[in-house]
């Protein structure tokens, strides 16, 4: 079995407009890859397509989890297959508490007729909330409703930790975070790093990568990856800016 | 307490569970259509006293004279063919006091609906009505010793006329509306309850209404009288099998809360989608008394129901908490009425409606505070949730406030479950049905906290079933 998240020659459009144009990427388990690039280059589209969002039209290509193509599957099937997407803008679900939501998500993974162990569940939940420095009172609060940007992102990481996915895609998790929240969230992610799990960290800024140190950095421009390197590439980008990417790679992609 | 324990205590009723029927085998059958003879047949079978015979025949006249309220109500009412309906079907008039004495098919019906089990677990008394008459009726003995009366309407008017007659038809007069008149003519079954002064029932009494026969009209009549300083909670449940033809359920429920008494009346209806459910419910609250309606409407073809409270004495309180779920092809036309007739009276209305697919929800409210009153308060909140673009919701609040220091507060909201919310929840592993169900449960969650636990759990189950079924 192929232990990786693999995107092969992916072409995606929305309303007839091409967004991803032959995107290729392989993230093996045990590694953290960062995907950087200017706004509007297709980073968030990639994340949503991988999670099965129905608004996008896949023209061609594959997204493989452990060698199995997940394109065309329902979002819940993709979730069960082990892909977790930490949203850039997490949705508010009024009246549904964090505790009940995560519990329902865990319950949905159990075979028919099997019930989640409530005591174990809460023990696990509280431990992970403590690690993310989330007040336990949060469990009773409606999911994301009235949360600050930082609280929403912490809540995404909490869900990720609770659902134990094999492949984590994090879309601009650093946006809206102050420096303390960034540190806490990063610690949460670093704690989850393991040989059995891969991360794709989508970010606009290098700042996050000081805390979540990537194994590989990819630069995306105009619907595909145009350059890859080690963590130093992120620092180079920070100094030179995205104009450098546009100048250096615009011709190549034309 | 874990949720598993809660589940075990829940009332085990679901939508499919109600969808079965037994062969029709009735000793008493008033035939098809509604004439004076039909009403006389019912009176004969029931051995009505003369005042009841007259009451029924007068009501029939009123019913025949009154037009259908289609000026303002759903035109679908015109599809009720009163000449094709059967108005009385029973196997006998005496309810059994033990489940062993209930006819096998009827007993099996209620066993499948889980009624005897609930009775053992948490109820103080049960009445189980099968088509026109109660097949079973029993209350705990200690309550009988305290003077609590819990019988069917016929037994009530025959055995306790001195309590029954002064209140019967007073809270809801025959001519209140066309369907209260129809019920007054053809009524059979339902409960008569009297709670003596100072007696506070710790456990609820329950009635279960079951329609088994096709083309049938069920017209139960309930009268609950809570004497001074007493307290009672009454719960009703209802189901019917899915027939091809229309079935009519038209009940009248009158509540009388005397000085400082408290009545809580809880309904969870789960009618099949062929039932016209046209019900009149009203309570009267004397000085310091409280009447609270908890009304959950799931299923039916068309429901028209606006529980009300007449706040007759100083300091009386009235409350209507309602949830309506209109699925494809259904119309839930529900609301509340609060008539403030004394100083310092307060009322609260919270209405939550959910429209799915082509389902339609309507809220109609009426709050009346006349000029001479002081220090009255009303709070009205109605929230609608729409799931997918075809859904429709309308709100018709009518609030008339005059007088000094009277305050009314009205809030209304309409929200939608967006595709992005569903996508978010599905990304976490929930199916589309589970995601919608969770959103709906979230929408009613705050309100459900005010319900007794047994009913919250059942309601959640019913919502889950409805949402699962609504995913295409």
Q: How would you explain this protein's 3D organization?
A:
The complex is a heterodimer of chains A (254) and B (472). Chain A is of the alpha/beta class and 254 residues long. Chain A has one domain: P-loop containing nucleotide triphosphate hydrolases (Rossmann fold, 3-Layer(aba) Sandwich). Helices cover 37% and strands 29% of the residues of chain A. In chain A, helix 6 links the parallel strand 9 and strand 10. The longest helix of chain A has 15 residues. Chain A is globular. Chain A starts with a strand and ends with a helix. The mean pLDDT of chain A is 93. By secondary structure, chain B is an alpha/beta fold. Chain B folds into 2 domains: 292 residues, no CATH class; 55 residues, no CATH class. In chain B, the strands form 3 sheets. In chain B, strands 5, 6, 8, 9, 11, 12, 14, 16, 17, 19, 21 and 23 form a 12-stranded mixed β-sheet that branches. In chain B, strands 4-3-7-10-13-15-18-20-22-24 form a 10-stranded mixed β-sheet. Chains A and B meet through helix 2, strand 7 and helix 3 of A and helix 10 and helix 11 of B.
What does the secondary structure layout of this molecule look like, with pairings?
The complex is a heterodimer of chains A (254) and B (472).
Chain A: E1 4-14, E2 17-28, E3 32-36, H1 43-50, E4 57-65, E5 68-69, H2 75-80, E6 83-86, E7 93-97, H3 98-107, H4 118-131, E8 142-143, H5 149-163, E9 167-171, H6 179-192, E10 198-203, H7 208-211, E11 216-221, E12 224-229, H8 231-240, H9 242-253
Helix pairs in contact in A: 3-5, 5-6
Chain B: H1 3-9, E1 28-29, H2 36-46, H3 50-65, E2 89-90, H4 104-112, H5 115-122, E3 125-130, E4 133-139, H6 141-145, E5 149-152, H7 153-159, H8 161-167, H9 178-186, E6 191-195, E7 205-210, E8 217-218, E9 221-226, E10 231-239, E11 247-249, E12 252-257, E13 262-271, E14 275-285, E15 290-299, E16 302-305, E17 308-311, E18 317-326, E19 331-340, E20 346-356, E21 360-369, E22 377-387, E23 392-401, E24 407-416, H10 419-427, H11 432-448, H12 453-470
Parallel strand pairs in B: 3-7, 6-9, 7-10, 8-11, 9-12, 10-13, 11-14, 12-14, 13-15, 14-16, 14-17, 15-18, 16-19, 17-19, 18-20, 19-21, 20-22, 21-23, 22-24
Antiparallel strand pairs in B: 1-2, 3-4, 5-6
Helix pairs in contact in B: 2-3, 3-9, 7-8, 10-11, 11-12
